[in-house]
Amino acid sequence: MDPRSLTPVLRVLRLCLHLLMAGLLALVVARAASGRSAEPAGAVVGVAVLLGVVYAVGPLLPAVRVSRAGAACWLAALGAVWAVLLVLSPDGLWLAFPLYFLLLHLLPARWGVPAVAVAAGAAIASYVGHDGAVNPGAFIGPLLGAAVAVATVLGYQALYRESERRRQLIDELIATRAELADAERAAGTLAERERLAREIHDTLAQGLSSIQLLLRAVQRELPAGSPAAAHIEQARATAQDNLAEARRFVRALTPPDLAQGSLAAALERLCATAPGPTARFSSSGTPLPLPTPYEVALLRIAQSALGNTLRHADAGRVEITLSFMETSVTLDVVDDGRGFDPARAVSGDGGFGLPAMRSRVRELGGTFAVESAPGRGTAVAVTLPLPAGGAA
Asked: Which keywords label this protein (predicted)?
């Protein structure tokens, strides 16, 4: 394994494994050199040193660090030398415990666990072969060590995988929060644009339009060609230019959906791009130019109602209808979903955004109605009175 990919915990565990292996090899060499055992000391020391060299060289080889196949070849060589040491001395079985961890760490679980079982069997066979007697201690030690190693390594790997999943969830949460913050900023910008457009339309544009009408009335009362009539004409022209500039500001602050065409075209695009249930748009009556605040309010209400349908209604069909009449314009959004209790939504339990829709309509002097019941679909109806002078 590449050392750069190790976590701090794995680095400490790897260091402890190296120290354990070095300490056990030193113990084997010391016992053999002291002459306390009947085995050939020179052969045992030589094989133990060779085992130490093979163990030390392995992590230095690039193939062992980055390739499972390379690691498997290194483990096979290490196991072969260890098997020779087991034949020469029973002290070699002490090295089984660190070898268990190596096998489990470098091999996949489906190969690591059987390899540990083989290593435990070799340790038991060495003990029985050198001692000449079969007793519970010959089996308990290697098998218990193998069980501890398997439980430790597999448990740590499970915890590590869980930690990685949580880290990924945290990263996704941070990214989602950033996206949500961007969306909220964009929504705030659009809301401020709409508010400014409404304010300019309702105050400046309307005031300039009234001034122009008053100047036109005064101009009709004055003799043609008089100096006063000329000044009035100049003032009226200035008011007309400023009114046109105010209307350009309103159009510039209009939502992008309306900037690309009429309200009907924006609603048709809304239905065409809606995911989930089939959404259809229809229009009736003779289309009339509407004031920008009317178009913005009707579009936002349609978007909100359709969004509620997609999120909550589990509907198969949604129909949006825009109707132009002599004195009013009506928007209807009807779905065949599971419906809800409007009384609960109004009280704040449903969270369907109805208060925001109702507030938009109230600001324009219109009426807002919701008809729904559990299992019977939902109908949202908005009626706005047309201004006497048409669109300003």
From this structure: Kinase, Transferase
Per residue, the 3-state secondary structure of 110-154, as one string, reads HHHHHHHHHHHHHHHHHHHHHHCCCCHHHHHHHHHHHHHHHHHHH
For residue 234, what are the CA distances in angstroms to 210, 213, 231, 266? Answer: 16, 14, 5, 39
Whether 350 has a pLDDT exceeding 50, the answer reads no
The answer on pLDDT for 117 being more than 80 is yes
3-state secondary structure of 23: helix
What is the DSSP annotation of 351-390? --SHHHHHHHHHHTT-EEEEEE-TTS-EEEEEEEEPPTT-
Q: What is the mean pLDDT of residues 102-108?
A: 81
CA distances from 92 to 45, 85, 283 (A): 11, 6, 90
Enclosing H/E stretch for 106: helix 96-106
pLDDT of residue 229: 77
Which tokens sit at 310? 């997609």
| C-alpha Rg value of the chain to the nearest Å | 42
φ, ψ of residue 283 in degrees (nearest 5):
-135, 145
Burial group, residue 351, by CB count within 10 angstroms (0-12, 13-18, 19+)? exposed
What sign for the dihedral angle of Cα 312, 318, 322, 328? negative
Widest distance between CA atoms in the chain? 138
- Encoded tokens for 219: 């101009």
349: pLDDT strictly greater than 50: no
The answer, yes or no, to whether residue 335 has pLDDT greater than 80, is yes
Contact assessment for residue 297 and residue 290, using Cβ atoms and an 8 Å cutoff:
no
For the chain, residues classed under CATH 3.30.565.10 are: 258-385
Between CA 191 and CA 185 the distance in angstroms is: 10
**Contact call for residues 356 and 169 (beta carbons, < 8 A):** no
* Beta carbons of 96 and 120 less than 8 angstroms apart: yes
Q: Where are the alpha helices (DSSP H) in 3-67?
A: 8-33, 41-57, 62-66
The per-residue pLDDT for range 231-273, each reduced to its tens digit, is 788 887 887 877 777 766 666 666 666 666 688 888 888 888 8
Q: Which CATH architecture has domain 258-385?
A: 2-Layer Sandwich (3.30)
